[in-house]
Specification:
By secondary structure, the protein is α+β, with helices and mostly antiparallel strands. It contains 7 helices and 12 strands. A hairpin with a 3-residue loop joins strand 11 and strand 12.
């Protein structure tokens, strides 16, 4: 969709808002906002939307006429950076850590990028961005289904990591510093989930959706991934399977009610 002022949106809608085609699911899209003034920046956001606002995981790049830019990749809420994220750019030092309502929270600065990059440097940056995008889709599914089997690092799971991760200074430990940036996000999320559970029992996903209850967590993960990748054929086939399960579930409930 293209507006008279040059604003452009490509993605899913629901009742006139940037949203998923299903009311209970966020949507994916790309929103481009042109400069308001001749020397103003162009802002491009690519990621998830909910109720017309940036909400979920995404990447927002603000590019100025002189070629300088700032990019934020991470969590969004109510149209602002909120949660875990990384900011980098060419004009000033960026930030790695937490964000609250668009403002930097706990974290550390990241050095600014050189204004002039070699062709190799540009190619490497694009390759890294593509990897982050792909991992971002996987990361969203993991965070929705945290449990003792959640993978932490190359060979460890949350079950084996928990005794070390529940210490106050775990982020300074060598095992944590060796994790990738995205693995660290998962580890922090597991720590918080364990604290919310308020005990040291096995970490279970407490927010099981109806699909998870009907078809199991693995099925729900594959379904969410197919939706993220906009694999319409797989989504359609899996929806049919969900409908069958729902019909059987309803019949079972009816039988119990008549006893």
């Amino acid at each position: 969709m293209l507006w008279p002022d040059g604003k452009k949106y490509e993605g899913t809608f629901f009742t006139g808002y940037y949203h998923g085609s299903d009311p209970d699911q966020p949507g994916d899209g790309t929103l481009t906002i042109p400069p308001e003034e001749a020397d103003g920046p162009t802002v491009v956001y690519k990621g998830t939307f909910q109720n017309g606002m940036k909400d979920g995981n995404g990447i927002e790049t603000t590019t100025y006429p002189n070629g300088n830019y700032t990019t934020y990749k991470g969590d969004f809420k109510n149209d602002k950076a909120d949660g875990e994220g990384v900011e980098f750019g060419t004009e000033e030092d960026g930030w790695i850590g937490k964000w609250v309502a668009g403002e930097r929270g706990e974290g550390k600065p990241s050095p600014k990028l050189e204004e002039k990059l070699t062709k190799m440097g540009i190619a490497l940056r694009k390759a890294m961005q593509a990897k982050l995008d792909a991992e971002g889709i996987k990361l969203k599914v993991i965070l929705k289904t945290l449990s003792d089997t959640t993978k932490i690092g190359q060979t460890k799971t949350w079950k084996s990591t928990r005794p070390f991760a529940m210490k106050k200074d775990f982020e300074n430990a060598s095992w944590f510093t060796k994790l990738t940036e995205l693995e660290q996000i998962v580890a922090r999320a597991c720590v918080q989930a364990q604290k919310d559970q308020n005990n040291m029992k096995p970490l279970q996903n407490s927010n099981k959706t109806q699909i998870q209850k009907l078809c199991g967590i693995k099925f729900a993960e594959r379904f969410a991934q197919a939706q993220e990748m906009k694999d319409e054929t797989t989504v359609k086939a899996m929806k049919q399977e969900i409908s069958k399960k729902m019909a059987l579930d309803i019949k079972g409930a009816d039988k119990k009610a008549t006893r």
